[in-house]
Amino acid sequence: MKYLMFVCSDTEPDTDRSDWPDVEAWVAENDTRGRRLAGDILADTSAATTVRVRNGELLVSDGPFTETKEVIVGFDLLECADLDEAIEVARTHPMAREGRIELRPFLNPDA
Question: Which of 3, 6, 54, 68 is the most buried (most CB within 10 A)?
Fold first, then answer.
């Protein structure tokens, strides 16, 4: 089953810095095991563009539409047997401690 893993910042990171996981090791392990299909870091929200159409009119604005301190900073596309495996993959990502991880299955799990 495919999951999109949003890697997000958080205003309340874990304060226990002992045994902090290494992101490069996490990527290498999950790539090798075939669980990580793709992933990347996103540019800062200052480089974002928001596109909307309202009443047939194109509205383009700089940056994110909402004002928030928690932002998506990256993503990974996962292939896992089930949600439990996806949670285990997310649990070991460094940003699970520094930020937050959101897992979303694709609507059509066969796609």
Answer: 3
User: For residue 51, what are the domain limits?
Assistant: 2-105
CA angle, 37 then 43 then 46, to 5°: 150
**φ and ψ of 110, to 5 deg:** -90, -10
The CATH number of the domain where 11 resides is what? 3.30.70.1060
15 — phi, psi (to 5°)?
-90, -10
Number of domains in the chain: 1
Name the pLDDT band for 109 (thresholds 50, 70, 90): low
**What is the model's pLDDT at position 16?**
87
d(CA 13, CA 17): 10
Nearest to 12 by CA among 102, 103, 96, 104: 96
The tokens of 102 are what?
């959101």
